[in-house]
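FW: tagging you since you asked about this chain on Friday. Here's the raw sequence from the shared folder, copied in full. Didn't touch anything.
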Amino acid sequence: MLTFFKKNDLLILLVIYFFLLPIGKTLWYPLFIMAIVGSIAFIREIKETRGLQTGTRWLLAGGACVYLPALASTINTVDLGRTSVFLVSYPLFFLAGYFIYNRIFNGARIGPILWSFGAIVFFWGTLAVWQYLDPSNPFGPGGSHNQGLHSRDNRFVDGGLMLGVILGSVFAFMTFGLWGKGFRKTAVLIGAAVVFLVFISGTRSAWVSVLFTIAATTLYVLARGWRPSLSSAAVLSTIILISIAAGYKLYQLPGLNAKLNQTLIVLSDPTRAGLDRALSGRLDIWEDAIALGLQSPLVGYGVNNYRYAVGELDQPKGVRWITEVNDPDSKHNIQGASHTHQIVMEALSGAGFIGVLGLVIYFIGLTKFTVNAFRAGSLIAMGAILALWAGFLPFNTHNNFYGGWMNAWFWVWMGLSVGLYFRATNKEEVPNS
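HL: got it, structure written out here
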């Protein structure tokens, strides 16, 4: 049994983590084990190579772009405890990401991971469709959001981690991976199913992630010199027409209709008020985030602190989000939105211009990394890198590096993408261990 676990620890832990995502706090258990095993592998790498592999250095450099600004933000943090929790936990997430990288770099099989992810997505999708079709389902009323087991406030879970956000990343990894292994029809079917699930999930940031992936995939295949034959063009045209017709049909249904209309309202009302309604009131949050960044331009008010940092403003714009803190032992009088719902604004308010500079350096490095992966021609590596981009688009309106589960999600894709890329391009660096 122990031998089986050692040979398949990546598959077992990664699949358990993925399966537990909607359950809530239990997802930390496999990550903690990954971090422990990763720390042992990290120390072994230092001893055996008397240095660090290129992939390990890339992971450390990418992590430093987030960690060092967060460390600097302690100078002016409004809640040292919350910032410290992030700083203490971040190395554990790095070690979990390093574990994934190390195992893949050393030859762990990707096929079982792809098929296991596919089975879990099928299970999640079945429950989301159940919620979508059946008003009396056990996961909540549905309507504009149909996320099945991932739905907030249902009796099965305590997490409510968003199905659409998760699938927005998985989309590229699954389709590129299965296509690269020769399962092209399966890749197309799973891709279409994921697009459908993301749409009915009602998570608009995930809609952006899927559109980004589709656009990036189109550019990728064209840049690789692919030109469709007459039969391929006919099939693609049919798929596009069916997708448009299905999307139009779904648009007519209550719930999703309202969600899409809210998104498009800025076209009929191209004013600040119209844009604010389309963004669910986030313009006020972003204005407060900018104001916080300007008040403490160098280091911000501490990462993961936006909800309390708004108390530093004399007249916050986002008054609709503000509540009084009734705890007499709390040093905070008011609380705003939980986070800024935007990765650059989160960095600006939490870590100032140093935090924004860290993001700029990271995404410049990721762009270079993506170009190198494109030249290498590894489909599965490219899929993982696009998954990382899709999950953490700097112009998307939801994600950030400082949230707990999103921080873990970031390091999972860092480990997968870096491991797959360097396995494809630097096989000579594989250590004897």
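FW: The chain has one domain: 2-273+339-429.
HL: agreed, and Residues 2-273+339-429 form one domain.
FW: great, closing this out.
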